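Support request, please re-run this one:
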Amino acid sequence: MELVAATALLGLGRDAEARVRAVSAHDACLASFGPTHRRTTEARALLNRCDGA
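Re-run finished. Output below.
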């Protein structure tokens, strides 16, 4: 759910809030699924978008 919220917030231009949620989503995915899981990769990509990478 955090990943969806972060994506929406980023789309609304609420970058700081989006990054907080994206970090939370990435940490949860990493802990639950590991580094190579699709959701973890998706969360990392969103973090990269938040950081402008």
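The longest helix spans residues 15-33. The chain has three helices and no strands.
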